[in-house]
Design a protein that fits this description.
The chain contains twelve helices and three strands.
């Protein structure tokens, strides 16, 4: 029986991974085509820099390099005469042809294109690689702080249900969960950074002292943690209150278990079944919400990079950034579904009746 359950579980995992891969391909393909339908963004900088960018686009298969002007390929992107006197007329390749070459470049060379505005000629993946570490570090620290505090407050509120402690915690949760992170960071910046001067007013440079770098984490971590703490607290309280009123917990008490033993061994464990998988989803939602926060505090992460690429029409960087968020979302969904079967042995994903 156990081997059959494991077999069904692995089949379900494989099925979910394949579906996630297909979903990712569809999302990224549609995103690529829609982005390419937008007006072509011309690179900034000296003519030599622009010429290098266009020649790279020619190599990647997204732009034609012709020696004379034509109306066959739509609008002329750029005209340039090199040092040898050769004329270069650059035109955009048809979108579906670009799509085929884009897929080929990714599969064979892991080439996602180059930046046209933020860092002309630099690989989009390299720009993302420089930024993603900061965002990941902030979100991991926020999650580590939010999870235990939120669950602890939720347990306290459930154990003190309908008492002053429960009312105070529930009221604070409703207040803080209603405040968006960008509003919260505005108040924190105003009070603790500008008025009191305790914390840095913006993200420090890489050459700043270590003490200033450590203090700089307080503002974004607080803003990212508050909403998560409130969410975990409310969710834990609701689940634990429901479990504590169930019949099997009453049976456990009648068999001689103390209230504390019944809560720890049975109530809390069963309440964690829907809570633990939500940690993954919450981590993803924090990453999405950190876009505005990173912009306001000047944090050089992928959130602020997304806004920067969008405002400057740097489509290749924007596309890779969107691909990162899409991948996080799909992976989180798969991990959440799979985790149910490991947390509670009674749940066997993919098993037949």
């Amino acid at each position: 029986v156990y081997k059959r359950q494991v077999k069904h579980m692995w089949k379900y995992v494989l099925k979910r991974l394949v579906l996630a891969l297909i979903t990712a391909i569809i999302i990224l393909s549609l995103t690529f085509i829609l982005i390419k339908l937008l007006p072509f963004t011309k690179p900034v900088g000296p003519n030599e820099t622009q010429f290098g960018y266009y020649m790279k686009e020619v190599t990647d298969g997204f732009v034609y390099d012709l020696t004379k002007e034509t109306s066959k390929y739509g609008e002329l992107l750029w005209h340039y005469t090199d040092t040898t006197g050769t004329e270069h007329y650059f035109y955009q390749v048809p979108i579906m042809t670009q799509y085929g070459r884009w897929v080929k470049n990714i599969v064979t060379e892991w080439n996602w294109g180059t930046s046209v505005q933020i860092a002309v000629g630099m690989k989009a993946t390299s720009i993302i690689g420089e930024k993603i570490g900061v965002s990941m570090k902030l979100n991991i620290i926020s999650t580590i702080i939010a999870v235990p505090l939120g669950i602890l407050l939720g347990v306290i509120a459930a154990l003190k249900k309908n008492k002053p402690t429960d009312h105070i915690i529930s009221t604070l949760v409703m207040i803080f969960i209603s405040i968006p992170s960008f509003v919260l960071i505005t108040f924190i910046l105003l009070i603790f950074c500008y008025n009191l001067g305790w914390l840095p007013t913006k993200w420090p440079a890489s050459t700043a002292p270590t003490s200033e770098k450590v203090l700089a984490y307080i503002v974004p971590v607080l803003c990212l943690s508050f909403g998560s703490i409130c969410g975990y607290c409310r969710f834990t309280r609701a689940e634990l209150c429901e479990v504590m009123s169930s019949e099997y917990l009453l049976l456990a008490r009648t068999k001689g278990l103390t209230n504390r033993q019944a809560i720890i061994r049975h109530a809390l464990r069963n309440a964690m079944v829907p809570i633990v998988p939500s940690i993954l989803a919450e981590f993803l939602s924090i990453m999405g919400g950190s876009m505005i926060l990173e912009n306001l505090y000047g944090i050089p992460g992928i959130g602020s990079l997304f806004v920067d690429a969008l405002s400057k029409n740097d489509y290749n960087v924007l596309f890779v950034d969107m691909a990162i968020f899409t991948t996080f979302g799909l992976c989180a969904g798969v991990l959440v579904d799979i985790s149910y079967g490991f947390i509670d042995p009674r749940i066997r994903m993919g098993a037949k009746k």
